[in-house]
Amino acid sequence: MLRNAFGVESVGLRATLVDARPVILTLMGRCPGSRTTVTIDETTLALLDKLAAAASGGRTRSAVVRAAVQQLAARERRRETEAQERAVLRKHRKHLDRALRAPVAAQARP
By the number of CB atoms within 10 A of the CB, which of 17, 23, 72, 104 ranks highest? Predict the structure, then answer.
């Protein structure tokens, strides 16, 4: 258990006030060496605490940050996939247009 600058115990997360402005969070994973330090403002820290408290099962800050990063990564992968698909459609637009028009034209003939 770690005790943050506010006197709150947490597992795998330490918060420290620096010059009463930014807050430095040290996130520690289960494996040695999987530790990262993030500097956030007090407003963001309060939001993080609120999200952790509101989550079912009493999530830790680390769990909230982990979930947020995973959601962001999934969203970015979707954007990349959609961008690749749009590029393919743009590249083959004329061919696709002809392929769609041919059956419609055939149906329109008496």
Answer: 23
pLDDT tens-digit series, residues 85-107: 999 999 999 998 888 888 887 88
Nearest to 16, CA basis, from 5, 26, 7, 2: 5
Number of folded domains in the chain? 1
CA angle centred on 92, ends 90 and 95, rounded to 5°: 135
CA–CA separation, 2 vs 59, rounded Å? 15
Specify the pTM: 0.57
2: CB partners within 8 A, 6+ apart: 9, 10, 11, 12, 13, 14
Give the structural domain span for 75.
2-108
